[in-house]
Amino acid sequence: MSDPTVFENLKVAFENHIYDLDNLEQTVHILHRKDQLDLAVMAREFTIRFTRVGFPSVIVDLKLHSSLKELADEILEIQDMDPGCTLTLLVRTFIRDVDKECEEIASILRTVWENDISFTQTLSFRHEQTEPGFMNRINIHFKPKLTEEHMGEIGEFLKSVLDMMEQIGEVS
Predict the structure, then answer these.
(1) pTM for the complete prediction?
(2) Residues with Cβ < 8 Å from 155, sequence gap 6 or more?
């Protein structure tokens, strides 16, 4: 029997922490979860979607991804390779004042995450939308690859996610 992969261990750790925030601390509401194996490229992806209690207009998808190369390097125990996963957040919120609110959100992201991320904000609206404003999809990519060495930081990381969600919720 083989050991669980880095992806599997990190997935379970994130899942447990977020479910504790939902069930025990009641600071988030989990809306959806997906654990996917993409057979076309042999990659794994885990997504869990949640909102912050008190800020239901800010929705976050936390995505953990591992490529075939990462999985193969780990399973085959390739020398000098440090297998890990990529982490992204997709934040969705509705905004009205594009210039002001997008800059405020960018400032929040730079303050909370410093230099550990790259991000984009993409605005959209529905055809025949009656209310003014735009859906802002904020894609946050974390630069450092996650390994099992980061397991002890997940709780603090999620506190930062909740803080970011609250601050973004106060913008709109």
Answers:
(1) 0.92
(2) 17
